[in-house]
Each structure stands twice: as C-alpha cells, then as structure tokens.
C-alpha cells in the first residue's frame, strides 16, 4: 500500500497552491454572502476530475498516478474560475498593506490552522491504525470512511449558510434575529442528520457496491454501517457549530475545543484500536465528533465571549 500512496502524494502535492488559493477565494465569496459562485466553480472542477479519472486511471493505465493528475488538474481549474470571478468584486493584488488587518488575519488564521490540524489528527491516526490491519481491512475501512465523509459534508452547507447569516445579523447588532438564525440552523441540522442516518442505514449496502465487488472488502465495509449511520446527527450538529463559531468570530474557542476533542480521541484510538481493530477505530472517530458537538452546546451556555452578547442583548 505504501508505494502507490507515495506515488499518489508526490503528484498530488502539485495541487497544493490552487487548493490554498481556492479556499481563500471561497472565504471571500462567503464574506459577500455569495454561495453560488463557489458552488459553480467546485462543480466544474469536480466534473472535470471525474471525467479525467475515467480516462487516466483505466484506459490510459495510469492507475493512482492518473487519479492524482486528474485531481490536480481540476483544482487548478476551480482556482482559476474563482480568481476570475473574484477579480470583478475586488482588487486581487495591491501594494497597500494594512498592518493591523494583516496581524488580525494571521492571528485568526493561526487559530484555524490549529483547529484544522486537530481535525485531521484523529483521521490520520485512524487511517494508520486501519492500514496496520492489512490491505483488505484497509480497503473496507476506506470505503466506509469515504461514504461517511461525503454524506457528512452535506451538512457543511448548513454550516456555511449559518455562518453567513449569523455574521450578517451579528455585525448589524440584530441579536434577536441572530438568535433565530442560531435556533433554526441547529434544528435543521438535527433533522437533516436524522434523515441522512435513516437513508444510509437503508442504502449503505448499495453504496458500497459502487466501490467494489470483492466479498471480503464488502464484509469489512458493512461492519462500519452502524458508525456511518449513528454519527450522522452528531456530525450535522458539529458541522453546524463550526459555522456558528465563525459567524461570530469565535475562532479561539473553535480551535481549542477541537484540539481538546482531537487529543482525547487520538489517545482513545491509540489505546483501544490495537485491541479491538476497526471497531475501536470507529468508536474513536465517533468519540471525536461527539466531543465536538458537546463542546458546541457547552459554549452556548457559557458566560463570556461573543455568545453572551447574543443572549443578553436585545435589538
């Protein structure tokens, strides 16, 4: 498994610049409350990715290298589209540097980088522990994980909408409306998570068949059905809270709470997974998402910070 992984990542690394540019551009569009433009750019990039995958991997025989090249190409396309559209909204390159804004941006950025590392750490660790089980368990684990991530990230749309709406009302001082946004986004997130859980429980077996017809791999993938389904409501709430944190610029708490959840879940994985196999891996990831959701509810009821203003102030 290691040789193809290194081959993939070596080529995939060329996509790092457009990924960073595209993420920054998407953040700018969210500031304008424009969610359509990033959607069109990402859809175009992913469509090209899918088409090139179908050409590079099998007909041209490039295998994992073809997958990497297809992904890198799509990332450059998405970044170019976003920059082209963003150029119509603001000046992309300017020599006028505002020191205070740069420092504030770097401070917030450093907190979010710490949060991102905390999110990725348990995923890195779970992948490493699953890989040590052998190629068949690893393949089954990866199928379950990809289904889990894909469906879970549907909830990210709620986080983006909540972030934009809450930030707008919070900045205007419309705290009553901000509270309404908070309630509605959490309610919709919970209902969406339950609906996704039910859908996955009924259709998970059919989804796994899209990846492979190997009976041994399918058996392993099916062992993750409870993890994939049960965690959907938890994931929905956790992702929604991410958007709410950003909407009121609560970057510090977002970083520290996620770091705490990541460290606890990683320690759990190191202790439990070697003894319980993939069951321990699923349990560790469930703990990680559960702690993030609990941290969100705790923050809403805590004193201090931006949330106290939302609860105490009236329009």
TrEMBL record:
InterPro entries, A to Z: DinF-like, MATE_fam
Coiled-coil ranges per UniProt: none
Gene Ontology molecular function terms on file: antiporter activity; xenobiotic transmembrane transporter activity
This protein's record includes keyword Transport: no
Taxonomy, superkingdom: Eukaryota
Entry annotated with the keyword Cell cycle: no
TM annotation in the entry: 39-58, 105-125, 145-167, 188-211, 223-241, 253-273, 279-298
GO cellular component annotations of the record: membrane
Sequence similarity: Belongs to the multi antimicrobial extrusion (MATE) (TC 2.A.66.1) family.
Name of this chain's protein: Polysaccharide biosynthesis protein C-terminal domain-containing protein
Organism annotation: Aegilops tauschii subsp. strangulata
